[in-house]
Amino acid sequence: MTDSIRGELRYERIIMGIDPGTNVMGYGLLGVNGRTPEVIVMGVIELNKFESHYMRLHRIFERVTGLCEHYLPDELAIEAPFFGKNVQSMLKLGRAQGVAMAAALSRDIPIAEYAPLSIKQAVTGNGQASKEQVANMLRHLLAIPEERMPRLLDATDALAAALTHFYETSKPAVAKGPKSWAQFLKAHPERIARK
């Protein structure tokens, strides 16, 4: 294992995306050079073999910590849990998300959280898009060969979170100037033409 994937692949910035889950948790990492993102890796952490919810949380912490140590991401983008009818499922999903966040925070990695609707909107232009539509759009946008597409769509959901974060943080800054001509002229009296 290398000290850093950054040195090996020479990325200016690495964004890790996570799609939290208690049965399957998706992850995806984007490497960014300038304004161009590319896929480093994507996959899933299968948790079904652990009967205990607490062991699943432990495994999430171990794997996310391992990903952080190997790839040295600069930021983590994580999908926020959506509100469902099953309170127990929501609680378990929130714990899984919290453990993944704690793993990143233990490595001083800043976190950004995005609602599922926002991620779908950013990637496909449709907040109601299906997981398959998100995966197909990612394949197109990031030029992912068909053979590299994962079997489980949790991985592409995680990659979509990372791409959403890339889009959000790559927007040009809006200049904060005067709100009116009167404010502008007051701030710049030298610009007033004199007869």
Order of secondary-structure elements:
HEEEHEHEHHHH
Could you name the CATH topology? Nucleotidyltransferase, domain 5
Major sheet summary line: 5 strands, mixed
Helix proportion of residues, in percent? 40-55%
Hey, roughly how much beta strand do the residues contain?
Answer: 15-25%
Oligomer: single chain
Tally of DSSP β-strands: 5
Instruction: Look at the structure and give the CATH class.
Output: Alpha Beta
What characteristic shape results from the CA principal axes?
A: elongated
In total, the number of domains comes to 1
Summarize the structure in words.
The chain is of the alpha/beta class. It has one domain (5-191): Ribonuclease H-like superfamily/Ribonuclease H (Nucleotidyltransferase, domain 5). It has helices at residues 5-9, 53-71, 87-105, 116-124, 131-141, 154-169, 181-187; strands at residues 13-19, 24-33, 36-46, 75-79, 111-114. The protein has a five-stranded mixed β-sheet with strand order 3-2-1-4-5. The chain is elongated, with a radius of gyration of 21 Å.
Topology, please?
Layout: H1 5-9, E1 13-19, E2 24-33, E3 36-46, H2 53-71, E4 75-79, H3 87-105, E5 111-114, H4 116-124, H5 131-141, H6 154-169, H7 181-187
Parallel strand pairs: 1-4, 4-5
Antiparallel strand pairs: 1-2, 2-3
Question: What labels would you give this structure?
Answer:
single chain; 195 residues; alpha/beta; Nucleotidyltransferase, domain 5; 7 helices; 19% strand; elongated
